[in-house]
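Tokens in:
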């Protein structure tokens, strides 16, 4: 199956101007600048003229709760699973699933089954083994064997630190688990990343620093998220990134979280860049279908709202239109940087040999006209 997307104003993510993309099955076979001979034409090739519409890489979301999350207010507050239709329209073509607070009524088997359901619908899906608590819940009996033997499992997460819902892990526990995930990742050709849920306790990211200081594990083996949830955590996150770590900002939010001081994700990106944080150390994730709970000062549950997968594309637009970040730079935060951290070199870029995951943007405003995943159009507006 060959498809030729003609006259695309291409951001790969670098701006390449008007180009033609040849898709062979699931991958990009060629990118040809306008005016150069087309690589193929004729019968058997579906040609689609995009008439100068902007084309960007499909988004890579490193934290999605495929099977729902939360339940901190009881069974009536469990959030729903991610629907395929919502995922296809979101612009996110690569999703990494995680368990969260609840690893009792939700399991790694649930997570893996949902990942394969979404993949059958056309998306690319991966998972983290484990959850907030330690010892980690696994499918095969250990973190290492999950990563080595199950193709979808690429790391460990979402392990909670500085949060009253976690297991209060010690630095030595974090270092040992990171070493296990890292070694398994090396054996399997995966990242072995340890994805970290960061709460609002005053310890912030210090447990990760202590784990790195007391071991041979680099800070970049950890990928802490929710760094924009409080002003103090945000400032600590900037220091963490300057020290060699990665930081991930959450795009889903609520009025209550913003009122409590959360830094909106696009603003967090702009402020981090202004503070001269290396851009490749910054990523965005949606925290989709997680519960976004609110607790009072006594840590009593007040209420929650679910995270939304569409918030990642919305935050990308806010980076560009509200904060003046060039589109080619902003794309990295929502796609390429996560792909690099997760060791997915075929994602987050539009170049020969990469997966044909791309978004065709609407002519006006900030909206998605088409979503292509693995060489197939899976969504078109209207």
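Residues out:
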């Amino acid at each position: 199956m060959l498809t030729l997307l003609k006259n695309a104003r291409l951001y790969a993510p670098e701006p390449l101007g008007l180009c033609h993309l040849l898709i062979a099955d699931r991958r990009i076979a060629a990118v040809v600048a306008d005016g150069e001979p087309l690589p193929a034409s004729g019968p058997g090739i579906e040609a689609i003229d995009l008439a100068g519409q902007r084309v960007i890489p499909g988004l890579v979301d490193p934290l999605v709760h495929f099977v729902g999350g939360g339940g901190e207010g009881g069974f009536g507050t469990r959030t729903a699973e991610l629907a395929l239709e919502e995922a296809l329209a979101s612009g996110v073509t690569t999703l990494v699933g995680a368990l969260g607070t609840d690893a009792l009524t939700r399991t790694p088997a649930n997570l893996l089954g949902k990942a394969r359901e979404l993949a059958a619908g056309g998306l690319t899906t991966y998972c983290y083994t484990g959850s907030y608590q330690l010892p980690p819940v696994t499918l095969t009996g250990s973190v290492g064997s999950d990563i080595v033997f199950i193709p979808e499992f690429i790391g460990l997460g979402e392990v909670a630190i500085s949060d009253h819902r976690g297991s209060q892990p010690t630095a030595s526990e974090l270092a040992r688990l990171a070493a296990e995930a890292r070694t398994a990742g090396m054996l399997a050709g995966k990242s072995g990343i340890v994805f970290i849920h960061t709460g609002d306790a005053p310890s912030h990211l210090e447990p990760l620093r202590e784990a790195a200081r007391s071991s041979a594990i680099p800070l970049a083996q950890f990928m802490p998220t929710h760094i924009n949830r409080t002003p103090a955590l945000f400032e600590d996150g900037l220091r963490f990134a300057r020290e060699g770590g990665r930081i991930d900002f959450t795009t889903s939010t609520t009025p209550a979280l913003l009122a409590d001081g959360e830094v909106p994700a696009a603003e967090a990106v702009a402020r981090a860049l202004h503070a001269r944080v290396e851009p490749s150390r910054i990523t965005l994730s949606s925290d989709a279908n997680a519960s976004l709970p609110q607790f009072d000062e006594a840590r009593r549950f007040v209420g929650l709202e679910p995270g939304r997968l569409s918030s990642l594309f919305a935050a990308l637009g806010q980076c560009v239109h509200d904060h003046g970040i060039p589109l080619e730079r902003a794309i990295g935060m929502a796609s390429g940087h996560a792909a690099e951290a997760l060791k997915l070199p075929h994602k987050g870029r539009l170049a020969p040999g990469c997966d044909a995951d791309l978004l065709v943007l609407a002519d006006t405003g900030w909206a998605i006209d088409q979503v292509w995943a693995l060489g197939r159009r899976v969504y078109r507006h209207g």
